[in-house]
Design goal:
Blueprint (H helix, E strand, L loop, with lengths): L10 H52 L3 E5 L13 E6 L13 E6 L4 E5 L3 E4 L11 E7 L8 E6 L5 E6 L3
Antiparallel strand pairs: 1-2, 1-5, 2-3, 4-6, 6-7, 7-8
Length: 170
């Protein structure tokens, strides 16, 4: 007489599997969120450095200057680096974005990254040097920074060189 056995999971097996899955998620999810936070910060920092390098090389190439400024809309300069920034070609060499000057690149900000800066505009002259008298910097960190060395400060010195330093969240 053949036996009819149902194949599948019992309720107990299903509950044990769900409990193991819940434990694995509870252990792995915070670590994964930390990785996402760190990668978001690295991406935004690298994009800002690339924009500043583009502005500096464009200033040297066109012989009049170029700059980077905080911008939320990609058409005008603002004061919120977290909203984004744009790179423009300074046609008249005055160190500010004026009507008719070409916007070379606009980078949209990341809502999960907070930013603070010593200036709203970082402008370069025809030799690739920074126009401002003092070093200018932009600080980036996750908006929900849990602590640790998750702050990146991008500094442009007098000669136009760009340096990044790590620091604690503020």
């Amino acid at each position: 007489m053949p036996s009819c056995r149902n194949s599948g999971f019992t309720l107990m097996e299903l509950m044990v599997t769900l409990a193991v899955l819940a434990i694995l998620l509870a252990v792995g999810l915070p670590s994964f969120q930390g990785s996402l936070r760190s990668n978001r910060l690295a991406t935004t920092t690298n994009e800002l450095i690339a924009s500043m390098a583009l502005a500096r090389s464009e200033a040297i190439r066109n012989g009049r200057g170029s700059g980077v400024c905080a911008s939320a809309d990609g058409a005008s300069c603002g004061d919120d680096w977290a909203a984004g920034w744009l790179v423009w070609q300074d046609a008249n060499g005055n160190g500010s974005l004026d009507a008719g000057e070409t916007v070379l690149r606009f980078s949209q900000g990341n809502a999960k990254i907070a930013a603070s800066a010593t200036a709203d505009v970082i402008a370069f002259d025809s030799r690739g040097r920074r126009r401002a008298a003092n070093d200018q910097s932009v600080g980036l960190q996750p908006g929900d920074c849990p602590g640790g060395d998750l702050r990146r400060t991008v500094t442009v010195n007098t000669t136009g060189q760009i340096k990044t330093t790590k620091g604690a969240c503020s």
